[in-house]
Amino acid sequence: MSARLLLLPLLLGLAAPASALTVYKHVDANGVVTYSDQARPGARVFQFAEPGSALRRPAGPPQLSDDLARQVRLDVLKHAGGDTLRVRNELFAPVELELRLDDVANASGAPDKPVRWILSPRSQIRLLTLAPRDPAQPLRYTPRLSHALGDPRLLPKPYRYPLPWQGGPFRQSQGANGLFSHFTPKGRHAVDIAMPVGTPILAARGGVVVSTRNDQPGATPNPGGNHVRILHDDGTMGVYLHLQQGSVQVAVGQRVGAGTPIARSGNTGRSTGPHLHFVVQRNVGLAVESIPFQFAQPVDSLPRFAVGGED
């Protein structure tokens, strides 16, 4: 007898306590998620929270844990007159900077407020030069540099994104404000599209490639798996996560056009099944956050989960 597949809202609304009903979650080879009250090979028990509370969530959404931060550096150049504080940006994208000095003592030239600046791609700037008020005493301060990718002065321009893949049709397995991972500022407006491993992934919008990862074989170390990040001309960024190892076809610094093949879909990082995680982000002021976007054509989707029919 075929397993009866249940819509999650129906399961949550059952009059019987959650503990009296065992619900199984199954992810097929294409990343499509189904929920059933009967076990099937490969299914796992779906965990409910205590009555009256929200569903249990994992530790957080996929984050882009690459080496972007290491490519923005603060250098302290010591010389006879004091210290010069210089910031170097090695990225192919602008960065917003904020330099704050704490525990300042015997320092001439120290500002009362944090210094903020937009540093162009592949450039450097001298932000401060400090000198001791009393040359016989040491110059003391603690510099703290904060930075965020992108230029917050740029405003997004209207754009309808072509579907960034070939093949299909595929289904949306998690949408904006999803219960499992799309609930923080960086990923709130992301979408997950279930698709087989190896599906060609295309740039949905032209721009400059600012970050890639291509060598991760499985779930670790990067929760987002292999990825491509593309900076668009209006300051927004398209991010493509969970890509197949060794499939990335573009290089950092390369300009690509819409429709350019960039990689193949995979199941790397913290992924419950083969899918593409696509999100559009921008710098909103020393913070990179996801923003709403629209595809140029409909995606065969359900609001939060891809739920199949009967087996």
Can you describe what's shown?
- This protein is mainly β and 311 residues long.
- The chain is 2% helix and 38% strand.
- The chain has 1 helix and 23 strands.
- It has one helix spanning 8-12, and strands at 24-27, 33-36, 44-45, 72-79, 82-89, 95-105, 107-108, 115-119, 123-132, 140-149, 160-161, 171-174, 191-194, 200-202, 207-213, 226-231, 237-243, 255-256, 261-264, 275-283, 288-290, 294-295, 300-301.
- It is elongated and about 75 Å long.
List the helices and strands and how they pair.
Layout: H1 8-12, E1 24-27, E2 33-36, E3 44-45, E4 72-79, E5 82-89, E6 95-105, E7 107-108, E8 115-119, E9 123-132, E10 140-149, E11 160-161, E12 171-174, E13 191-194, E14 200-202, E15 207-213, E16 226-231, E17 237-243, E18 255-256, E19 261-264, E20 275-283, E21 288-290, E22 294-295, E23 300-301
Parallel strand pairs: 11-22, 12-23
Antiparallel strand pairs: 1-2, 1-3, 4-5, 5-9, 6-8, 6-10, 7-9, 12-13, 13-20, 14-19, 15-16, 15-18, 16-17, 17-20, 20-21
What tags apply to this protein structure?
single chain, 311 residues, mainly beta, 1 helix, disordered N terminus, disordered C terminus
Cα radius of gyration in angstroms:
24 Å
Mean pLDDT reading: 80
Summarize the main sheet.
9 strands, mixed
Approximately how much beta-strand content do the residues carry? 35-45%
Instruction: Categorize the overall geometry.
Output: elongated
Tally of helical runs:
1
Class from secondary-structure proportions:
mainly beta
Low-confidence stretches: 1-24, 46-66, 301-311
Order of helices and strands: HEEEEEEEEEEEEEEEEEEEEEEE
End-to-end Cα distance, whole Å, is 9 Å
